[in-house]
Amino acid sequence: DATRVFSGTSDLLGVGDATNRDLVVVVAGRGLQAQPATATGNRAITPMNQTFVLQEALNENRMTFTVDGVVGSITLPIKAYTGETFAAEIQKRVNLIEDPLTGKTVSGVTVKYDPDGNRLIFTSGTRGEDSQINVVGHPNFGLTNVTQVRGSVPIITDLKQATDSAGNKLYVDKNG
After folding, report:
1. pLDDT value, residue 20
2. What is the 3-state secondary structure (H, E, C) of 11-51?
3. Which residue of 6, 95, 111, 171 could cross-link 16, Cys pair, CB 3.0 to 4.6 Å?
4. Residue from 107, 135, 131 nearest 121 by CA
């Protein structure tokens, strides 16, 4: 489905003026998308489907992340959480991490609470083979030895028409 992208006028290269505006359309891409990296926590000891309070003395409020080569730590406020609010607070803070040497920042990371598995699932904000995410946190929240899956790019095989020794194209008929 095409969508118009210009409104208003621009004399630059004649794009966007009233005479050409209806000729410019954007067509949505088709095909397989690259996938983001994920890190899936183990089943938490703490029942995150209930209200809980982080224990600072146990360092439950501290986590270390590696996202696309940027390493940083976060410290969560000591207050009451549920799985949903815990995930939201982590997500907010992980997206503020910045590498002090390169200035590269983390962005687009999502954190979801999975109530069926009583665990947290982290997804990188980038896609492709260079996309990666890891988190280390307290075992009460299943954040030691998390399962990491790097981002990926679909492999597409370009099929070639079969030919005989003379170069004639071969086909398969209804009888195989």
Report:
1. 52
2. CHHHCCCCCCHHHCEEECCCCCCCEEEEEECCCCCCCCCCC
3. 6
4. 135
